[in-house]
Amino acid sequence: MTATAVDFIVVGGGIAGLSVAYELAAEGSVAVLEAESAPGYHATGRSAAVLSENYGPALWSRLVTASRAFLERPPEGFAPVPLVGPRGALFLAMEHEKEALRDQAAGMAGRGAAVELMPAGDATRLCPVLRTERFALALFERDCLDIDTDALMTGYGRGLRARGGRLHTDARVGRLSRRAGTWTAVTAGGTFEAPVIVNAAGGWARDVAALAGIGPREVVPFRRSAATFDPPAGTDIRHWPMTFDVAETFYFKPEAGRVMVSPVDMAACEPCDAQADELEVAIAVDRIQAFTSLEVRAIRHRWGGLRTFAPDHEPVIGPDPAAEGFVWLAGQGGNGVMAAAAAARLAAGLATGRGVPGDLAALGITADGVSPGRPCVSAPEVPTEAA
After folding, report:
1. Which of 309, 340, 364 is the last residue of a domain?
2. pTM above 0.85?
3. Do the Cβ atoms of 244 and 260 come closer than 8 Å?
4. How many domains does the chain have?
5. SS3 321
6. Is the terminal CB of the chain with fewer CB neighbours within 10 Å at N or C?
7. What's the confidence (pLDDT) of residue 44?
């Protein structure tokens, strides 16, 4: 079978794959290889999908900051509807977590975000069902936004096609090899060749690297569970913020007329079609009933999704030092949708040799800081026996 030759192969058709393919298509020809029958099936389509500059570790938070402009003002014709809408986010800290929350507020303010610190008891004006006795301080992020994930994915797909790129579904990569400066990816739907391949395979990123003879790389998928239930009859929940505790043991938000809740579980698992864990759903119910006056009478829907992390929870983006032309865009954790625009530009800049875009460098993002070759990703620590 004759191979399809392109400038860039992107493995994975979730938000990471489509966004970086869109950016790369401005530079050359692109083929996106998606294993499933439709893009965004695993993590992207199961995301809580908000833009919060206070969620996630430092570098991801900065990529979220850098993604705001794209989401608020996308290119002309990118989407027929707004990509974002108002939501707000509320973060609750216990007494021993107050200084950490203050530090987060200072960091956000330094990036231009609108933040408000208040005594925890005052947070009930934003979400009246909260039980705040266990908390000491609250941070309100006024400019947290809901993201229309479907509109964002559709926009990237449309933009990719307009730039001449192509998405191939049912195209799971079975073999990868490199010869004479060219990567060859063999799938059930055809063979593809390119000098550069971008690994945006989400929970399968480590498997794709192994096919390329790279490893081990500590980019591990974890299962996360979520569920929805009905609010009390007659309660208007539309304007409640998305609410987190600083320790990340729960979050909840309005979702299509119901309340969505997650215990923020992180159970390491093999890449798969993740399902909700019944025990974790029960824990989520227990926590929301402990920290709010809500009563969960019945779970209306439950689901699981994959969240992929490096050991430091920071991005894994850029060329792998062990394989020329093999570029990573992985380790998004729960930040993949909200940070996609900037992460894609970063990956494209590093894939093409242009380096870190200037606005991202101004936020303190460096190639070394996100490199798949950094020690915690490429050489995990081995526990030693106590002396």
Report:
1. 309
2. yes
3. no
4. 3
5. coil
6. C
7. 60
Instruction: List the domain range (segments joined by +) for residue 125.
Output: 89-142
Of 5-14, 51-60, 132-141, least confident by mean pLDDT is: 51-60
> Can you give the CATH number for the domain in which 353 is found?
3.50.50.60
Structure token pair of residue 28: 């050359």
- Give the number of other CB atoms < 10 A from CB of residue 14: 27
pLDDT of residue 298: 96
Q: What DSSP letter does each residue of 171-185 carry, written as one string?
A: --EEEEEEETTEEEE
Q: pLDDT-based confidence at 225, cuts 50/70/90?
A: very high
E strands, 214-298, where? 220-229, 242-245, 251-255, 258-262, 267-268
Question: 61, exposed or middle or buried, with CB in 10 Å at 0-12, 13-18, 19+?
Answer: buried
pLDDT tens digits, 121-155: 999 999 999 999 999 999 999 999 999 999 999 99
Which candidate, 364, 248, 244, places its Cα nearest to that of 309? 248
- Please answer whether residues 274 and 305 qualify as being in contact, where contact means their C-beta atoms are separated by less than 8 angstroms: yes
How far is the C-alpha of 231 from the C-alpha of 235, rounded, in Å? 7
Half-sphere exposure of 94 (CA within 13 A, CB side): 7
| Strand pairing class (220-229; 196-199) | unpaired
